[in-house]
Amino acid sequence: MLRFSFEQLASFVAVAEKGSFSKAALSLGKDRSTLHQHVGNLEIDLGITLFDRSGKFPKITFEGNSLLTQARHILYHAQVLQNSGDSLAEGLEESLTIYHDISLPISVIEQVQFAVHQQYPQTQLHWIHRGRAESMDALAEQHANIAIVLSKGSGVLPSKGLTFTNLGYLPFSFFAHKDSVLAQQTSCNLDDLEKQQQYTAENYMEVDLGNNTKISGRIATISNMDIILSLLKQGGWALLPNHFVSSSSYVDAICKLNINFMTNDGRWSLILLTRNHQNTGKVQRYAIEQFKAAFKVITQ
Q1: What integer is the mean pLDDT of 258-263?
Q2: How far apart are CA 35 and CA 21, in angstroms?
Q3: 31-81 pLDDT tens trace
Q4: Per residue in 261-294, is it b (16+ CB within 10 Å) or e — as a string?
Q5: How many domains does the chain have?
Q6: How far apart are CA 38 and CA 40, in angstroms?
Q7: CB 3.0–4.6 Å: which of 99, 104, 149, 223 could bond 132 by disulfide?
Q8: Spatial separation of the C-alpha atoms in residues 16 and 6, rounded to whole Å
Q9: Helix 6-18 × helix 21-28 angle, to 10°
Q10: Could you tell me the residue range of the domain that residue 282 belongs to?
Q11: Average pLDDT of every residue of the chain
Q12: Does residue 26 sit in helix, strand or coil?
């Protein structure tokens, strides 16, 4: 049986952090005399002196300082337990697992993570980077709640049993290192691209984007876009999402090529997949709305 209460611990921690009983009482919304009583009783129950009260302000003792971190941990985990119980009582999910394509903008991940954490702080979001096929398998096997993948192509619907939402079309462009032969040209034609090394992201090969953009006679498939950006220092070119390049550490070294056979950037859509007839909880519904809102901004 515990010889102390959570109120006593809260008063002890508040006095230690605020440096006075008056400020601690104000922060907890209690009377100063109540905090004196809590701390005094805690000292009696533990058999030690937590504060030296001989001066104008209470000074934490060696013994008190030794217990302060443990007291904070106890209060923190007690609050977590209470919040988790409240979440379960409200039917909120303990966690959501989101499988996503490497093309998903980091800014979207940050925005959704922040919004969900603010609204449902007890729900953990797990972000798993996987390809289209593996993401869809994870949904079907109930390892994932949401999957965000590249669209297969025009008129191609997801597998049976999945519901999809088209989040929007992300712009893609042709990029090369600023010191490369291609970057020195005022414009590039198809023949120019055919003669140079092409790097393509592995995730493109799962959809029509990969087949539709095979131009060079020398094509290397790379699973990591950061590696593609690094390899461009050696020459060649790559079709990449604009947002990925602009937010990377290579932004000053990589430039967009002026392609004479294209008047605008290419675009490809990302879709959000969930299982048909799944029991969609409050947090998942909220997260989906946040994805839609984030894409509405970046695809305008």
Answers
A1: 88
A2: 7
A3: 999 999 999 999 999 999 999 999 999 999 999 999 999 999 998 888 878
A4: eeeeebebbbbbbbbeeeeebebbebbbebbeeb
A5: 3
A6: 6
A7: 149
A8: 15
A9: 120
A10: 95-165+272-298
A11: 90
A12: helix
pLDDT tens digits for range 197-244: 999 999 898 888 888 899 999 999 999 999 999 999 999 999 999 999
- Cβ–Cβ < 8 Å for 122, 291: no
Is residue 188, in this structure, part of any structural domain at all?
yes
CATH number of residue 263's parent domain: 3.40.190.10
Asked whether residue 1 is domain-assigned, the answer is no
Question: What is the reported pTM?
Answer: 0.70
Dihedral over Cα of 88, 94, 96, 97: its sign: negative
Amino acid at 1: M
Output 267 or 263, whichever has higher pLDDT: 267
Percent of the chain having pLDDT more than 90?
71
Q: Which residue has the tokens 């999809």?
A: 164
Same domain, 215 and 66: no
Q: 34 with 103, same domain?
A: no
At 184, the amino acid letter reads Q
- Strand pairing partners for 271? 149, 166
Evaluate whether 209 touches 186 at the Cβ level (below 8 Å). no
